[in-house]
Design brief:
The structure is a single chain. The chain is of the alpha+beta class. The protein has one domain (about 10-310): 2,3-Dihydroxybiphenyl 1,2-Dioxygenase, domain 1 (Roll), CATH 3.10.180. The protein has 5 helices and 16 strands. The chain has an 8-stranded mixed beta sheet with strand order 2-3-4-1-13-16-15-14. An 8-stranded mixed beta sheet has the order 6-7-8-5-9-12-11-10, with helices on one face.
Length: about 300
């Protein structure tokens, strides 16, 4: 990585869910991710904000959700991030195919997309598009069959050129592969950082709802780098928010030319800022400005729990 690089890869992906309990059972249970933070949506604090990831919630491993009970399903389509892919060891292919079968998760047969990667498409309980990418390129640590973090994301666009221009000129990405209507970009050529732009001009426009992605966040090292990025994207005419304090990172948001909401989030301070690493995700954590409302908020949130032994 270039020491002057302002964007270093994917930080997190945030999606919209229906049932918070079913969401917990799917991601912490079936997929085996760790619930690293249980808080509320800071912008709509009557709903949870659930964060899943590796043991410490490392950037590049974090999948987060706003669960709205009873929300109508959205629709995949252009102008939307439609598939989030997780990285798993190639040797664990049979394990995962059997695990998906065991828990009744419908999935497509493995297909080779680019050399050295086998993709298995599936959906969560809300219909959110997911993939497991089996590969030998990921050097992140984990148990034999464990998800290592993200592998890639797939964004459908009317045309890829303007979004590609934003990624390459402002967000430190380079084009590293292409195949048919798929163009792959990355801030660094390693699993967890791939952004696939797929030209889908004949697709219907995506519609927000449960089972759709709300935004993708990219990692920036610190506040100074974040300020530089904000100046760059506003300089090209994009409407970026002010820097917002999300407690576990600071963020700016803007829409890329195809309509997908992009966030740029700082790598620190991280998820252990308000609870010990050994106990991440065990309690409802609130920022200081919401603590006076804790009793009210807890009364609005349905209790969620999981017996992980049922998913061993």
């Amino acid at each position: 990585m270039n020491k002057n690089q302002l964007v270093t890869g994917i930080h997190h992906v945030t999606a919209i869910a229906g049932s918070s309990q079913k969401n917990l059972e799917f991601y912490a249970g079936i997929l085996g991710l760790r619930l690293v933070k249980k808080t509320v949506n800071f912008d709509a604090n009557s709903v949870y904000h659930l964060y899943y990831g590796d043991e410490t919630g490392t950037p590049g491993s974090i999948m987060t959700f706003f669960p709205y009970e009873g929300l109508k399903h959205g629709r995949q389509g252009k102008g939307m991030l439609n598939t989030t892919a997780f990285s798993v060891p190639l040797a664990s292919l049979d394990y995962w195919l059997e695990r998906l079968k065991r828990f009744g998760i419908a999935h497509k047969p493995p297909v080779e997309r680019f050399e050295g990667e086998l993709a298995v498409y599936l959906e969560d309980t809300d219909g959110l598009g997911l993939e497991l990418i089996f590969n030998d390129k990921d050097d992140r640590k984990g148990d034999a069959h464990a998800i290592r973090g993200f592998y890639s994301v797939e964004i459908w666009e009317e045309g890829y050129e303007r979004t590609a221009g934003l990624l390459t000129t402002q967000l430190d990405h380079v084009l590293i592969a292409e195949k048919g209507n798929r163009f792959r970009f990355a801030a660094k050529d390693k699993p967890g950082n791939y952004v696939d732009l797929v030209c889908m001009p004949d697709s219907l426009k995506g519609l927000s709802g449960s089972g759709t992605v709300h935004h993708i966040a990219f990692t920036t090292p610190d506040g100074d780098a974040q300020t530089d990025i904000r100046q760059k994207v506003t300089g090209m005419g994009l409407n970026a928010t002010p820097i917002l304090d999300r407690k576990y990172f600071k963020s700016i948001y803007f829409r890329e030319p195809g309509g997908v909401l992009f966030e740029v989030a700082t790598a620190l301070p991280g998820f252990s800022v308000d609870e010990p690493a050994a106990h991440l995700g065990e309690q409802l954590m609130l920022p200081a400005w919401l603590e006076p409302q804790r009793t009210t908020l807890e009364s609005q949130l349905a209790p969620i729990h999981i017996d992980l032994s049922a998913y061993k």
